[in-house]
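In line with agreed milestones, work has continued on tokenised descriptions of protein folds. One protein thus recorded appears below exactly as we store it:

>
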Amino acid sequence: ASGLLDVRSGEAPFRSIMSVAVSLCIRASKDSRSFGSTMLHDSSYENGQISEYSDKVLFAMKCVVQASVLLREHALVFCPESMLARIIDLSGLFETISHVLGRADGGFGEKIDSFQLKLSDEARLRREPFRTQVQEPRKNVMSRLPASPTLHASWYVGDGLLLSPLEALTHCMTYSKDLMTIQMDPLKAVKFTSYHRIYMFLENRGAYTISLRMQTCASTSILSHWEDSSCSNYDYWSGCCDLAQDSIVRLAERSLGGSGNGITSGNIDSQLAVTYLLSLPIKLAFKVYRASLPSAMSKRDFTRLAYLANVGLKAGGVELTSDASQEQERKSFIGWTNQRTFISQCRRLSSNAKWWDLLQKNHVGFDPRRFDAKGGRTSETDVEYCASLVPLLIKGAFVSQNPEDVLNLATKFVDSFGLDPYLAPQKMLEFLLSWPNEDDLSYTDGKEKMRTSRGFDIRKDITACENAARDMLRLLPSTMARSAVLRRCIISLESDSKSSQDYEKHDVALSLYHNELSIVLAEKSGHSAFQAEFERIDRRRDALGLLSSFFQGERIAHRPKFSRFFEPLPFPFKSEIGKLPRRLAGVLGKESEDDFDPLLPLMDYFAFDSSTSTASSLHPLCHSIGLPSGYVHARVLCARFQKAQKSPPSFETEVRPVINRLHAARDGAKLAEWCALQYDSGEEDKLKCLTLALNLAMKSS
């Protein structure tokens, strides 16, 4: 045989090589038949224990591999032109069978691949003895390739489950025998069934790529030997077309991330998917493509959904540029034609999937069905739903991004769904001026069902928060727009009971709103509604300044809730016009349930500290909260009476000075009468209080 390999002229040596290759294949076929029936009826084989026969099976497989390498590395390289067609045909057959055997389970496939590689290297070295060896080892070359995914040992990454060694060998030998019979007697081609057992064997294990290759090999061989048209067999070709189409459908499903045999669900090969889809009839291709979408949607795998949308775009003739945000129509013939509606839907799906993925990564809960556009138009409720997600997206993005990046993200979201372009800075401003609740700083992990910290909240840094808020205000179109947003921020801040003691956050919001109202009044002088609003904000700022200066240091823990000092701002704006204002509480507090008592938030602190210095320090608060002068001293005095049990305050040194501070005689009479009730009967101070109360009551009448 070595002498034949060195002869490179004439047909005789190559006919001999072909004979040797066929003999090797016949040897493998006989061996597989000889011990195959014994193994199939052996209980140890049924239990998967074939170690007793492994050497025989491996030897038969190596015979086929030797025949394949012999034809490919020697005969094909130097054969005369007259024999090229027959050698190509036979070499293709043995190469295809070697491909199947290389997928054998139990370590057989690895051994076959290693044996084939060894024979190929030896053949090349014999053919080119002075050729220098490859400088770079194979391991280094392979290391440049991306790592294969880690799957179960019984699964093959590329094409279905690994194959049973004996069954693979037996079916391959039957397949090769039938095709070689056709090469010797073309008239017997009509007897080759399109439903050959090897196809069913491979497809039952998900090896659709190998099955398609073997179908192609058989069809090519039969066509090359059917010179007489009378040998045509319509049933055969019809069956071949159906079988090939079914294999392509399965491969398309697999490339689109389907759960077919032999590959994990969710792995998408975009290039193969487009190739297979374009190979199918368009209606069937649409059916296969649409069937891949619900699984990704139900699993909320939006990255996979975006890949599927891009597959649809490519199949529809759209070329994605290096910039994923830009697309241009492909001018070549590749892709379906006249599919504008489909392309539009895929573009929308691609955009939605990318945003769904971002929303999910930022821990925003949402319903993808609310994004669907019906009839090419987005309903008003869907627009409102998308707008409701903007503040949630901003809150989630602020955990790991700076204000500028968050604004860019929110702006792109707003633009993508056709929302108000000023919605992004508005919601950013509302977020910055809101109170950082504990729930905002953590999220629930859907897999582990536990709370996880989200990181630092910018709203806790009052300086950074104020600077970012001013930046957002500059992006709004007008003073009125800025005032409207700031007003909503103040209303929201005052309605949150947890934020009432954050005087610094209230101060930032009130100062910004006060500045904008000043500009509005300058533009609209004499407008009573804006003037009243300006006064409400001005009084809030005065009260906040006084409270902030008093409750410092050790007193911070005793800060009263600021929002309870004032009634909520009218909502909507100007809604208070024509309505009577709520009656304020009297000098002693509420006289009815409908009264509003601005000093009620301070009563707990007055019970803790009812000194004269406290009353003097907080005395200016009366004007800011709309109460008559002296009310703070009166409430402090009441707290002092309630706190003192056996030694009540002295009338001359403590009670009379407070009553004298009250401008209204009616208020003085009420306070004097209440103080008199706090003294024991027969005390001189009690009589003095009653006398003063009578005089003030007569004066007020």
In short: The mean pLDDT is 82. The longest helix spans residues 12-40. The chain is about 60% helix and 0% strand.
